[in-house]
Amino acid sequence: MFQQLQSLLKDKLARNKKIFFAELVGTFTVIVFATGSVVLDAKLNGALGLPFIAIAPAIAVAIGVYLFGKTSMAHFNPAVTVGFFITKHLKSKKGLLLIYLLAEILGGILASIFIYFILGNEMNLGANAPNYIDFPIYVIVGIEILASALLMLVILIVVYTKGLKKFSGIAIGGIVGLDIFLFGLISGASMNPARSLAPAIVSGYYIDLWLYITAPFIGTSIVALLLRNKF
């Protein structure tokens, strides 16, 4: 009996380690592409433009989903992790939730440190910035919530609909890129608190961080609550 319990505990620890490193590496990669594209575009005086800034993280997310989907479900995003917690897809509940969140935040910070030393610190290391000049605050907040909700909706539909799993990376990466392309010049289209928190911590630019550590959680939580019994 004791040996069986010990074996189960070892298996659980091994699985949790795999999840932690999958989320750490996946989040690191996604945020390197997401923020690095902004920094690189700034270094080139805007020559690459919004399409490049949207496509880069979309590709990173797609690759990450296919590489780590079976290991950790490829969240790479604290707001998505909370969404999965609400839908009760995190089996170990709070313990596993903390593992995901720690890996995602640490992966993001490492990504911003990497960008700082490799590309530079232009645009506050690619920190998100809302467009207060052309849009009122309620529109900006609403758009960020909408973008995050659309991301969670696509994830749940693709991952839990039979026959669509093979397209999961393309669909999830696609909605990330589309959200950034459509909404990036309005709200900044972070959809990911780790993606915004990391450059803020490393660069010291915290001015708009409140938006990106609230709205994405609201958006993903709304969808998760609405669909928690559907999947």
Describe the structure.
Helix content is 74%, strand content 0%. Helix 1 runs antiparallel to helix 2 (49-72), helix 3 (78-86) runs antiparallel to helix 4 and helix 6 runs antiparallel to helix 7. With 231 residues, it is mainly alpha-helical. The chain contains ten helices and no strands.
Amino- and carboxy-terminal Cα gap: 35 Å
Strand content: under 5%
Helix amount: over 70%
Number of strands: 0
SSE string, helix = H, strand = E?
HHHHHHHHHH
Element layout with pairings:
Elements: H1 2-43, H2 49-72, H3 78-86, H4 94-118, H5 123-126, H6 137-159, H7 168-183, H8 193-203, H9 209-212, H10 215-227
Key terms:
single chain; mainly alpha; 74% helix
Quick description:
By secondary structure, the protein is mostly helical. The chain has helices spanning 2-43, 49-72, 78-86, 94-118, 123-126, 137-159, 168-183, 193-203, 209-212, 215-227. The model has no long low-confidence stretch (mean pLDDT 93).
